[in-house]
Amino acid sequence: MSLTKLAQDGGSPVRTDKLPPRYVGVNLIGEEEKKLVCEVIDSKCLFRHYGPGTPHFANDLEREFKEYIGTKYALATATGSGAYFSAMRALEIGPGDEVIIPAFGWITDYAMVDFFGATPVFAAIDESMNISVEDFEAKITDKTKVVVIIYYQGAAARIDEIVEIAHNHGIKVFEDVAQACGCEYKGKKLGNWGDIACYSLQNNKIISCGDGGLLVTNDQKMYELAVRYHDLGLMRDTFKANLEGPQLTDAIAGQQWRINELSAAVGLAQLRKLPSIVKNCQEKAGYLRGELLRKFPNLKFRAADPKDDIGILVAFDLGSNENVQFFAKAYEAEGLVYGPTSWCETINKIPPVAVRMKENGIFEQKTFDVTNEIDLRVAKLAILPVYSDRDMSDITTAAIKVLDVMIELKMI
Ligand SMILES: Cc1ncc(COP(=O)(O)O)c(C=O)c1O
């Protein structure tokens, strides 16, 4: 007979009051953001390029961000996607080019390639939940121009190996750091490994201004093209002042994805909190991982070294989707909240992508099957910087309680 009675079977739940809402940076919005936003309002300078006074928050955000990541250039944009599309323009992809993308990702990663008429080619993920280096290498052809690396929920990929393989083949590396802003790999920030990288400041991200984006690169020509594409094809004086050498590009047909000063002010206040967010989440994730491992030494965590993982997610393999579903339902019945803070999906399941891929006839089922299988058997628990010691203790107690029952039931 079972020693433990789960809440879903009539036992007492671990927790009866609510956890904080599942946002990382957004939960930390406070006096610092308010102060900078009030400065913008007081100055009446909402537009980044000119106004009744001297706007400076977008410039400050770019300067502090490039210093933080360690790149020569940074560009802030109105949305993450605005940065991503600008990066693809900077990489000069077009019809006839192939772009390798992990099959586990976000709509934007497919759309930005499709939009410029290039062909997306999918590579499977591995137990790190990031692109499989081996499958990336297998998908290279003489048409491959770019590889996209998506860092799912805070953890690095084997980016050093990827860059080496890519550059040996003349392939450019694009890093999608939307879900891993602040993460390092081998002591160097993600976003400073490849040729160009983008971040999102949307509501569910590690730092946020509601909607916003950032792009970084060490390459002057790519910076110029991204700047131009995000701002009507122009190269205004603020950006010219950042160039290391003489201008390398001429006007192009661009979009309008400029960030405004209100968003930049919030983004800047959040950026200043990022080092403490990372430290805080790493400590909490380390505690949960440690407690789970002490109790279940065979539990297989997502394959990423904890020092290359900012700790916003603790993910472990439960062997099957039925087990993950059992865990999630029982864990929520204990009064906790299951799931990550922002999402990736096996790309062929994202509705607009699925429709478009069928139209284009691009459908490599095996890659998606391998990817989906890994995603479905991995349980995911979000870690927030605002969690108190009691929150962390309840999360740990509930996870252990459910896993204990799963062992008693011989599910795992
Ligand atoms: C992995 C990934 N890439 C790109 C994006 C696009 O960012 P945004 O929503 O700011 O346009 C997101 C946002 O959800 C994301 O999670």
Write the layout of secondary structure elements.
Blueprint: H1 31-43, H2 57-69, E1 73-77, H3 80-90, E2 98-102, E3 104-105, H4 107-115, E4 119-123, H5 133-138, E5 144-150, H6 159-168, E6 172-176, E7 184-185, E8 188-189, E9 196-200, E10 213-217, H7 220-230, H8 237-240, H9 261-271, H10 274-295, E11 300-301, E12 313-317, H11 321-333, E13 345-346, H12 351-360, H13 365-377, E14 378-382, H14 389-408
Parallel strand pairs: 2-4, 2-5, 5-6, 6-9
Antiparallel strand pairs: 1-10, 3-13, 7-8, 9-10, 11-12, 12-14
Bound molecules: pyridoxal-5'-phosphate (PLP).
Task: Describe what you observe in this structure.
By secondary structure, the protein is of the alpha/beta class. It folds into 2 domains: 7-20 and 274-408, Aspartate Aminotransferase, domain 1 (Alpha-Beta Complex); 31-271, Type I PLP-dependent aspartate aminotransferase-like (Major domain) (Aspartate Aminotransferase, domain 2, 3-Layer(aba) Sandwich), CATH 3.40.640. Helix content is 40%, strand content 14%. It contains 14 helices and 14 strands. The strands form 4 sheets. A 7-stranded mixed sheet has the order 1-10-9-6-5-2-4, sandwiched between helices. Strands 11-12-14 form a 3-stranded antiparallel sheet. α1 packs antiparallel against α9 (261-271) and α11 packs across α14. The mean pLDDT is 96. Pyridoxal-5'-phosphate binds at residues 79-81, 84, 105-106, 108-109, 150, 176, 178-179, 200, 202, 213, 342, 344. Pyridoxal-5'-phosphate is lined by residues 79-81, 84, 105-106, 108-109, 150, 176, 178-179, 200, 202, 213, 342, 344.
